[in-house]
Design a protein that fits this description.
Layout lengths: L3 H4 L5 H7 L2 H15 L8 H10 L6 H21 L3 H11 L5 H28 L3 E11 L12 E10 L5 E9 H20 L1
Antiparallel strand pairs: 1-2, 2-3
Helix pairs in contact: 2-5, 3-5, 3-7, 5-7, 6-7
Length: 199
């Protein structure tokens, strides 16, 4: 579990989490758990912020980000360790004595409902250890000079991929293709997308 007291400095993350109503905390945690279960591409912090403001609870941007990070790391760590709801609450209480009973009840309830799914998703990600495509860009070019002078004035496509490694680091890869190769690549990507929609 992350160390709650050190994460945010003077204004503790736990204090901010406890300022949320049980419903608001549950809704915020639901966003995070949905992401950890692999059902969304990320946690929409702008939506969480908007929901907090509509409920009359305002946070500085960094304080909100620290709360989201803390909950994300807490649930991710609990999923990795396959903790029960009771074990999660016990570890949170060990980390800080500032937790409200209502906040701990919400976290216990949500983790009891979703913990097994988060653990299963975590195991699947660990066993696959695959990269995730974050962004793909392409541009059309024309070869005007070459050392071999073999294919001058022929069009080509440069593809740039932004990839999230299993470690969490973002890397970029680029490669060039002829127009027919790019058309075949496009066809294969469309086929993969169609198959993934059925899963």
């Amino acid at each position: 579990m992350p160390a709650a007291e050190e994460t945010c400095g003077a204004v503790s993350v736990v204090d901010n989490i406890c300022r949320l109503t049980p419903d608001l905390l549950a809704e915020s945690c639901q966003h995070i758990l949905t992401y950890l279960q692999g059902q969304t591409a990320g946690v929409n912090s702008a939506e969480i912020s908007d929901r907090c403001q509509r409920a009359g609870v305002t946070f500085e941007h960094e304080a909100l980000q620290n709360m989201i990070r803390f909950l994300l790391l807490t649930f991710r760590s609990a999923g990795k360790s396959n903790l029960t709801g009771d074990e999660l609450v016990s570890r949170l209480e060990e980390g800080s004595n500032k937790w409200s009973k209502a906040s701990l009840q919400v976290l216990h309830k949500l983790w009891s409902e979703h913990g097994a799914s988060v653990h299963a998703q975590r195991q699947a990600q660990d066993s696959l250890s695959i990269c995730q495509l974050v962004d793909m860009q392409w541009k059309l070019g024309l070869a005007v000079s070459s050392d071999t002078c073999r294919s001058l004035n022929s069009p080509f496509v440069t593809v740039m991929l932004k990839i999230a490694e299993p470690s969490g680091q973002i890397s970029q890869r680029s490669f060039e293709m002829t127009i027919p190769q790019f058309q075949n690549f496009h066809k294969q990507v469309k086929e993969m997308a169609a198959v993934m929609e059925t899963v």
